[in-house]
Amino acid sequence: MASTRVFASRLASTMAASSKVARPAARLQFAPKRTFTTQRQAVPMTPFQTVKRQSPSGLLQANARQVFAAQQARRQYSSEIADAMVQVSQNLGMGSAAIGLGGAGIGIGLVFGALLLSVSRNPALRGQLFSYAILGFAFVEAIGLFDLMVAMMCKYV
Description:
The chain is mainly α. The chain has 4 helices and no strands.
């Protein structure tokens, strides 16, 4: 049983190699009959001559352009998997932005925690420290709003 498998695979590889060698000569004999242009060559083709590439006609090129444009206009994505991947990436962007909003909340808490600690240590600087705390609050809130804007862009744009 194993010997027939080996013999069959060797026979198949030998036949494939011999048919690949014989194919170019057979193609060159029938090449003038299948061209797109009407020009005939005076010299008969031989297997050792180089074959000049024929350019397709204008009608064929226009048809190919129309088919390509119709395929592009029909659907933006090629499959439902691509649509699902877009949805997943939008949701990941929203999750990342939510983490950033959590960071802004932590920052606001740290700013006012530092304000309370510093006022308890030196009550005389209460007014000046409160203005610094409001400035820190504004910066942290701006970062949080920027994060929210990025989240909405990820989801809806």
